[in-house]
Write a structure and sequence with these properties.
By secondary structure, this protein is mostly helical. The chain folds into 2 domains: 46 residues; 299 residues, no CATH class. A hairpin with an 8-residue loop joins strand 1 and strand 2. The longest helix is centred in the N-terminal third of the chain and has 25 residues. The radius of gyration is 22 Å and the shape is globular.
């Protein structure tokens, strides 16, 4: 490993040089390349550690995510414009690699603390801008520089979930976490975005399930987990079957605020290229009201991450995305209900639940933030298994993920 360390150090310097040249059309890519090379250099510079455990199962989610990234790159060959698709696909894959690399340098507590702190910073900045613009007397939502409340609300929700994993038996630490989490919840309530609320309820349900199953006998845990899984499927079925009266009850239109017609239009286009999609970085001209294929520019009108992925990369790629998330959720859940696991371990399945439920009615998983978070969470799953296999006396260079 140390033989390639000088190469990555040189790449880091080269990237910094190119960024300093200030060629605006490559600067965004170069910024993330600098981050990626810096992470790789840090990983390679760490002392090697021996692990005898088989990590094959825990590496599957990360492997499937990397495979999805390869499909993104390959889609350049059948996309409307190969150069723009290749550029965006490379940028997307870079987010996955950065998340995976970062997971090898931070433990779970540090990762979730960073997510909570980042979301809290976004909230404070948005509130400061909104107050400067006359909130609340101006009658506008406190969105700061965000164009719509859905994006900001989702980001704040991630912070709430991450903060919940940091609660401990220490009263002082719990209060320190509860204060910013309360601000985030209040901020979310002012935005009135139902998808975030439903996602947080689903995350809270996962918290309750883990707390209950964790305390029962090990021999009963698989059966109890199956019961809760079936209850979850049943709940989703009920919500879908009775979606019209439920939507009207909360003051929304019976077609999921216009989402169902959008899904139907996207599904019609997906059937034209069901196996390959139109290419990564392209979407329907939904806002223009036409059937044209246009660059999405980080605007995903499908309001469903899996449908958007199927449209861009084909149905097999959407199944690949769903399977990677499901497998990661499975591993993270059973890690968290282990009697010896501490509460922070539950962060992976709880946050994955939030992300998956949100993308049933919104689109964030295929975006830059979603790809980064999946890389980070999937990497932490593998990191957790690796650290468990390292003898206690050798863990001074690799912090435990559960403390």
């Amino acid at each position: 490993m140390h033989g390639v360390l000088p190469i990555f150090r040189a790449l880091l310097v080269a990237s910094m040089f190119v960024m300093s040249v200030r060629m605006w059309y490559v600067q965004e890519h170069i910024v993330f390349l600098v981050i990626f090379f810096a992470l790789v250099v840090s990983i390679l510079a760490k002392p090697a550690q021996q692990s005898v455990v088989s990590l094959k199962l825990t590496l599957i989610p990360a492997g499937l995510l990397v495979l999805l990234g390869i499909v993104m790159i390959l889609s350049s060959f059948w996309a409307p414009q190969i150069h723009s698709t290749l550029a965006y696909a490379g940028f997307s894959v870079l987010q996955i690699l950065i998340g995976l690399a970062l997971s090898q340098l931070v433990n779970m507590r540090e990762a979730f603390a960073g997510l909570a702190l980042g979301a809290f910073g976004v909230s404070l900045y948005s509130l400061a801008v909104s107050f400067a613009q006359g909130f609340p007397s101006n009658g506008a939502m406190p969105m700061g520089l965000f164009a719509n409340q859905s994006d900001l609300s989702h980001i704040l929700g991630i912070g709430v979930v991450a903060a919940a994993t940091l609660i401990s038996r220490s009263v002082a630490q719990s209060l320190l976490v509860a204060a910013p989490a309360g601000v985030l919840l209040w901020h979310i309530s002012t935005l009135g975005y139902l998808t975030t609320t439903v996602s947080l309820v689903a995350a809270a349900a996962m918290v309750a399930i883990i707390a209950v199953v964790k305390k029962i006998r090990p021999s009963v845990k698989p059966a109890a987990s199956l019961v809760f899984f079936l209850l979850g499927i049943f709940s989703l079925a009920v919500l879908w079957i009775f979606r019209q009266p439920l939507q009207i009850l909360v003051g929304k239109t019976p077609d999921f605020s216009g989402r169902v017609p959008i899904w139907e239009r996207f599904w019609g286009n997906i059937q034209e290229k069901p196996f390959t999609g139109v290419g990564w970085g392209w979407t329907r001209d939904e806002f223009g009201g036409t059937d044209r294929i246009v660059p999405h520019q980080e605007i995903f009108p499908a309001h469903n991450g899996f449908i958007e992925t199927a449209f861009a990369l084909g149905i097999p790629a959407a199944i690949l995305l769903a399977f990677s998330l499901g497998f990661a959720l499975y591993i993270g859940y059973f890690n968290s209900i282990d009697s010896s696991a501490t509460w922070v371990t539950a962060g992976v399945p709880v946050l994955l639940t939030y992300l998956v439920v949100h993308d049933l009615g919104g689109t964030w998983l295929p975006r830059v933030l979603g790809l980064f978070l999946m890389g980070l969470l999937f990497g932490l799953i593998a990191r957790n298994a690796r650290d468990k296999a390292i003898p206690v006396e050798n863990r001074h260079t690799s912090p435990r993920l559960s403390h």
